[in-house]
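Session log. Operator J.P. requested a structure for one protein chain; no other inputs attached. Running the standard single-chain path with token output.
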Amino acid sequence: MMKKALTAILLTIAAACATAQTYSFTFKLEGRTDTMLYIVRHHRDRLVKVDSCRAQRSTYRFEGRRQWERGVYSLVGQDGKKRIGDFVVDASRRFTIAGDAKMTAASVKVKGCPSNEAMFKYLAVEDAARSEADEIAARKKDPATREQAERDDEALTERMLAFETEARHPAKPNIFFTLVNLCDSPEVPDTVAEKGVYYRRHYWDALFETKDASGARAFDTYRTALLYSPQLFSKMNYFFYGMLYYADSDTICAEIDRLAARIGDDTAMLRYVFDHIEPRYFRSTKNVGWDAVWCHLASEYYLKGRCPWATEGTIHNMRYNYNRLRQSLIGAPGQELWMADTNQSSNPADWISSHRFPTRYVILWFWDPDCHHCQEQSAELKVLYDSLQAAGNHRFEVYAIGYESDVEKWKRYVREHDFRWVNVGGTNVNIDYQEAYNVHGAPTMIILNERRDIIMNKVLPAKSIMQFLDNYEKRSKGVKE
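Structure written below.
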């Protein structure tokens, strides 16, 4: 048995060695003082170390025998974090890149790798164009040179468009340009009325529809290189946390579903996206509706077995959090609380309901008298509430739940600060309000509408409450803001 196991191990090692190749990547960086440099790959927002070497008079030679996946790599300093510059690994396994200490594109000379040579020439032209554009922009500010500067700007734009088209032509296969092309942004036709919607709907077209030189879908051919490229991460990051940052949860969920459908059965790509967005949508405490996005990810993908990389422990935790969060999502019915006020009666007949007020809205205010932020927010809320009451404006009632186990301390704080809204607290309550409204810290604010459905589950500053209610009513009536 042991002999068979040893044989299997040796065969595995032999297979790995058979696919490995000798390589020698040399970087001659004039004036570079690092004693060691690293080669890293990009995996979402992290840098993964691949290789390292020590300096020999500003020369860094990475060599040995290993299997290199083609794609974009970065050279980083001895701290393992600060990027010096990018380069590509394609078919070439022996090349030299010489330049200044910062690997500035204009200073770089490449031997032995046409892909890197083309890339650095391209980057040098792009850098020069940016400098020229800055100089033109400065001349535009001067009335005496503005007219000529505008003509120069148009000429530069035309020249760079022609250069881009020629350099990135699909008939000239180069992994760097292929990855750039795959992460291109869509061009919006002038005839399109809703340009933002069009841009969003076609944002991923280049990635999934670009063909390589053989006519195959380039996404399939360059999948591994894409997953480890900074271009794809930047594109994904901008989509979710740039374009969709202020979108409502329904829009974000629809875009996630649309992207997942285009990814299809590509588990590696789906995991690449979900591993990045799932924790951010879960942890967000400020973005309205993001908890609903997380619940959508959990219920439609993880809990339905569409994420095979997720462990049993992960699924168990997600199911628990999903069942807890969904009760407090915007649009969910608010659960009615019955609690004792400062009299602390143990008779349920004396308890006060969170729902049975004549006001159109109810603000559930979970606060703690020992919490400094709660104290500040409660003081601001009191000013708003008292001023509205004095003016006869009973638009909302505040149902303030004292999030404090020391009942006497809570009652004393209410009395000293003259809180005239509905004050409830203590242990005399019909249900566990922490579970009912996902309250696991103070302050927490829940706003209920006339049907006592949840319309807000984030803490709003007092000065924003009236504007929020106005906007909510406009949206409810279908009025565009």
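Operator note: Confidence is low (pLDDT under 50) at residues 1-18.
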